[in-house]
Amino acid sequence: MSRNEKLLTLILRAQANGFEFKPWFQTHIDPDWPGENQAVALLAKQGRLFALIFSHEFARAFWKCGEQMRFAVPAGSYSRVNGKGQVITINRKPFTRRTIKPDVWQYHLRQMVLSNDPVAYLNRFLPSESEIVAQTPAVEGLTAAS
C-alpha cells in the first residue's frame, strides 16, 4: 500500500467519525481546493501530512471520544531488577487492547510524537484486511473466486 493510499485510508476513517477534510485543508494548507485525491497527494508529497495527523481536529475524529476501540500493542522486551537484585529480561507478547476514555486522542497524540513512524502508529488502529472481509456482507451471486 502506497503512502497516499495509507493517508487516504486514515482520512476516510476520520471522516467516518465526523472529520471534515476539505474545510480543514482550505484553512490549514491551501484555500484553493484541488480535489480529494490531489489534496492527499499534496499532503503526502510535500511532507505536510504531519500537519494533518497531529492536528487536534483530525485526532478527535480519528480516536472518537468515548467510543470503544481495539488496537494492537506490539511485542516488547525490557529489563528490570527482581527481588533478589538480579537483572531479568521481561518479554511481553503482542496483545489487543481496548479503550473508551473520553480524552484518548490526547494520549495517542503524545504517543505519536514519541513514535519513530507516526503513520505506522496510526495504522495500528485501522481494521485488518481479514476484519474488513468479515464485516463486509456477501453479495448474492459473487464468490471469493470471482
List the main descriptive attributes of the protein structure presented here:
146 residues, alpha+beta, disordered C terminus, 4 strands, two-stranded antiparallel ribbon
What does this structure look like?
With 146 residues, the chain is an alpha+beta fold. The chain has one domain (3-124). It contains eight helices and four strands, in the order αααααββββααα. The chain has helices at residues 3-16, 21-28, 36-45, 49-53, 56-62, 104-114, 118-123, 129-135, and strands at 69-73, 76-81, 87-92, 95-99. A two-stranded antiparallel sheet has the order 1-4. A two-stranded antiparallel ribbon has the order 2-3. A hairpin with a 5-residue loop joins strand 2 (76-81) and strand 3 (87-92). The longest helix has 14 residues, at 3-16. The chain is elongated and about 65 Å long. The relative contact order is 0.13. Residues 131-146 have low confidence and may be disordered.
Short description:
This protein has 146 residues and is α+β, with helices and mostly antiparallel strands. It has helices at 3-16, 21-28, 36-45, 49-53, 56-62, 104-114, 118-123, 129-135, and strands spanning 69-73, 76-81, 87-92, 95-99.
Average pLDDT works out at 79
- Using the alpha-carbon principal axes, give the shape: elongated
Percent of residues in helices = 40-55%
The neighbouring-strand order within the major sheet is 1-4
Given as residue ranges, the uncertain stretches (5+ residues, pLDDT < 50) are 131-146
Task: Report the β-strand fraction as a percent range.
Answer: 15-25%
Task: Tell me the number of strands.
Answer: 4
Termini distance? 22 Å
The quaternary state of the protein chains shown equals single chain
Helix vs. strand class: alpha+beta
Tally of separate helices: 8
How many strands, which pairing sense, and closed or not: the largest β-sheet? 2 strands, antiparallel
Rg: 19 Å
Number of domains: 1
SSE string, helices as H and strands as E:
HHHHHEEEEHHH
